Amino acid sequence: MTKAEERALEIYPKQNMYEALFDGSNRLRREVFIKGYEQAEQDLALTWEDMKRICALSVLVEMELGRKASDEQLYEEVLQRFNSYREVKK
What we know:
The protein is mainly alpha-helical. It folds into two domains: about 5-45, no CATH class; about 50-90. Helices cover about 80% and strands about 0% of the residues. The protein has helices at about 5-10, 15-20, 25-45, 50-65, 70-90. Helix 1 crosses helix 3 (about 25-45) and helix 4 (about 50-65) crosses helix 5. It is elongated.
């Protein structure tokens, strides 16, 4: 069972013995949920172009903030800039 199927079953469980046998009322809801979940995974997956951008941002941020910044500060800034870039890209 995939993660999407597990989550769909948590949210839209089989409701009674009839549905357990014949997979009735929540079946369609689960199918729609699974399709949406899988599409979201695809939409959020990083591409090689995204990784190239992240690496470039990492170097840029480190040059701007300097070595005095903590790893957390550096990577938070890279993450913020990358997320902004993804929003503009949509």
